[in-house]
Amino acid sequence: MGVKRIGVLTSGGDAPGMNAAVRAVVRSALHEGMEVLGSVRGYNGLIHDELIEMSIRSVTDTIHRGGTSLFTARSPEFRTEEGMQKAVDTCKRHGIEGVVVIGGDGSFRGARDLTARGIPCIGVPATIDNDISCTEVTIGYDTATNTVVDMADKLRDTSQSHDRCSVVEVMGRHAGWIALYGGIAGGADVILLPEIEFTLEDIVRKVELLKALGQREIIIVVSEGATIGGKLLTLDEETKGEVRLGGIASFLSTKLETITGIETRYCVLGHVQRGGNPSARDRVLAARLGHYAVQMLKEGKSNRVVAVQNEQLVDYDITEALDMKKPFDMDMYRMANEISG
Ligand code: ADP
Q1: End-to-end distance of the chain based on CA atoms, in angstroms?
Q2: What number of other Cβ atoms are within 10 A of residue 77's Cβ?
Q3: Considering 21, 113, 158, 209, which has the largest number of Cβ atoms within 10 A of its Cβ?
Q4: Is 187 left (phi over 0), alpha (psi -120 to 50) or beta?
Q5: Cβ–ligand 1 contact at 75 (below 6 Å)
Q6: Active site residues per annotation
Q7: For residue 238, is pLDDT > 50?
Q8: In this predicted model, what pLDDT tens digit does every residue of 190-212 receive, in sequence order?
């Protein structure tokens, strides 16, 4: 007999398109004759037996919504043996034979641990940062990048009116994908990322050159995790000496204005990047990955992450996926520099 009942949950940082993924999982599973239980607040729902019977109708009117209607959580309890055992017991009690885990790397570690305890799991990559190595794209990344572009466009309007320099800080503690793609699409003059080291002198030189060439507004897009002169400026405990609280955008705009005399403002986009209606691209990606995850469970597969490579759906063992490294797109970064300002 095939799989009769599965679970689905969204876990870790939320991302636009998670609802579309849940919808695809629920409807694909129902189509296969399976029943689906939604776990509320990620792994917490499994630990505390908070499960919702999902029907075709329970995912109606969710495809266009950001956030996640199953809610999400960071669950420290799930990282304990006791918490994990409770989750396993809940699955067994309800006859859950497989779980689709929609989230990031942390959530996949949890999925691997749950699989090892007898509950087959399939991971679906969803995070705005696009920092899951086994896949070219993650659910939420396209929407977040579009939000950055939208904001950069607006800032450009007002920067131009005032001959200002604008520093836009975007999400990405360790990965510069949002800054790179958002910066290119937003026509940024300078893009600063965690993957590349910059000095303040480099940035000042570029800004002064652009001004000398007659450019009115200057747009700098910077990842929250970028460093200047090897110093990380986002975490309070790392801000020593002249580097003050407030993150890299605040630091950089103060320095630029002082050194160059050009009026400079900064804007930290923050959590708006996580919200909003998912783009068409994210909805389609979520539909494909969610559907594929259910096919995996149907075929009796477990401990896999579904992913996209060369625009095709593929899947990897979770441990293998967690060990993979996604090389930074240096060619894209060089191109961005060549066509800026
Ligand atoms: P993301 O999935 O976005 O990377 P987190 O890193 O917060 O987000 O992970 C989400 C949840 O996955 C955590 O709250 C925890 O319950 C579970 N998790 C994270 N890391 C592990 C781990 N090493 N082992 C087991 N479970 C983990």
Answers
A1: 63
A2: 15
A3: 21
A4: left
A5: yes
A6: 129
A7: no
A8: 999 999 999 999 999 999 999 99
Ligand 1 lined by 115 (C-beta under 6 Å):
no
Distance 127 CA to ligand 1 centre (A): 13
pLDDT of 236 above 90: no
To 10 degrees, the CA torsion angle through 60, 64, 70, 71? -160
Q: For the segment 143-192, what is each residue's pLDDT rounded down to a tens digit?
A: 999 999 999 999 999 999 999 999 999 999 999 999 999 999 999 999 99
pLDDT of 136 > 60? The answer is yes
Ligand 1, residues 79, 130, 173: which to mutate, most atoms within 8 A of Cβ? Answer: 79
Question: Closest Cα to atom 9, ligand 1: which residue?
Answer: 106
Q: Is the pTM of this model over 0.90?
A: yes
- Say yes or no: CB of residue 110 within 6 Å of ligand 1: yes
The contacts of residue 266 (CB under 8 Å, 6+ apart) are 166, 167, 168, 169, 249, 250, 252, 253
287: number of CA atoms within 13 Å, CB side? 10
> Alpha-carbon distance 201 to 273, whole Å?
30
Supply 45's token pair: 């729902």
Decide whether any atom of ligand 1 lies within 6 Å of the 109 Cβ.
Answer: yes
Task: Compute the distance from residue 15 Cα to the ligand 1 centre, in Å.
Answer: 15
Q: What is the pLDDT of residue 231?
A: 60
pLDDT at residue 341, rounded to an integer? 73
DSSP 257-319: HHHH---EEEEE-GGGGG-SPPPHHHHHHHHHHHHHHHHHHHTT--SEEEEEETTEEEEEEHH
For residue 314, with 0-12 CB atoms within 10 Å meaning exposed, 13-18 middle and 19 or more buried, which class applies? middle
Output the residue whose Cα is nearest ligand 1's atom 7. 12
What is the gyration radius of the CA atoms in the chain, in angstroms? Answer: 22
| Residue 146 contacts residue 317 (beta carbons within 8 Å) | no
Residues forming beta bridges with residue 218, ordered by sequence position: 165
Rounded Cα–Cα distance for residues 255 and 239 (Å): 15
Distance 235 CA to ligand 1 centre (A): 21
Q: Measured from the CB, is residue 140 less than 6 Å from ligand 1?
A: no
